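User: Could you go from structure to sequence for me? I need the amino acid at each position, not a summary. Structure tokens:
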């Protein structure tokens, strides 16, 4: 067929699309694009026989050329992968029922001896029961089983702070790098800072964690104590009411 070229002309803020062939094109017809723009086309007898070539898109690179990188799963990703039985034990711990949770986890440990989540929540249950030395062993074992998982490190830091070793606990949290994507780490950091009367730092870390942990009674209680320490009584009352609502009767307290 004839050679042709496509020309885009802008006149009076309207886009006119005209296909020009050799010779003079006459008798243009008015049409509409799918987006509602008006354009002009020659009659069928005047249109050149050309093929419309779609614009080429960039081809994806082969898999071999892609940069492969591994990043440890976040706390949220770990929580999504929990089997129902482990999730049930976690819920019991959150409600303050650590003893039945530990009984359940002991059974799961016999069934899943190499499951780091089971070991971690065993540590959480024993920590809630006040058995700190035993909890520390569970957390250390979970850290060895899953070196890239931040939750055992965060729990170890919380345990250190509970033993009045807040400086070392903050250093351990700092070794994890940025805690922006680890809300549990931000919660523990806020708790430690509030217990050392760094209320401004506690509010900063706590509000970042609140994006993902809006129903966490412990975090809300920490924010209430921090707001009270800063003299913001109205905010403190709001946080206290929310903490009591989500605690469901469970006793709340800062680190000793």
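Assistant: Here is the amino acid at each position, in order:
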């Amino acid at each position: 067929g004839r050679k042709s070229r496509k020309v885009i002309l802008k006149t009076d803020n309207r886009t006119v699309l005209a296909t020009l062939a050799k010779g003079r094109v006459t008798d243009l017809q008015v049409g509409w694009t799918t987006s509602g723009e008006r354009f002009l086309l020659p009659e069928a007898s005047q249109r050149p026989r050309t093929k419309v070539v779609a614009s080429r898109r960039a081809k994806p690179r082969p898999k071999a050329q892609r940069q492969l990188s591994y990043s440890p799963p976040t706390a949220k990703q770990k929580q999504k992968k929990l089997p129902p039985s482990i999730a049930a034990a976690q819920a019991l711990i959150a409600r303050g029922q650590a003893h039945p949770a530990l009984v359940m986890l002991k059974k799961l440990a016999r069934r899943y001896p190499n499951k780091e989540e089971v070991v971690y929540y065993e540590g959480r249950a024993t920590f809630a029961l006040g058995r700190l030395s035993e909890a520390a062993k569970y957390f250390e074992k979970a850290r060895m089983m899953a070196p890239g998982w931040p939750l055992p490190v965060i729990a170890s830091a919380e345990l250190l702070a509970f033993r009045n070793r807040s400086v070392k606990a903050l250093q351990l949290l700092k070794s994890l790098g940025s805690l922006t994507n680890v809300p549990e780490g931000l919660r523990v950091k806020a708790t430690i800072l509030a217990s050392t009367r760094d209320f401004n730092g506690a509010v900063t870390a706590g509000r970042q964690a609140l994006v993902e942990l809006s129903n966490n009674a412990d975090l809300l209680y920490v924010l209430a104590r921090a707001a009270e320490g800063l003299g913001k009584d109205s905010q403190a009352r709001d946080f206290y009411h929310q903490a009591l609502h989500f605690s469901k009767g469970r006793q709340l307290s800062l680190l000793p």
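One structural detail worth keeping in mind: The beta strands are 4-11, 14-21, 28-32, 38-42.
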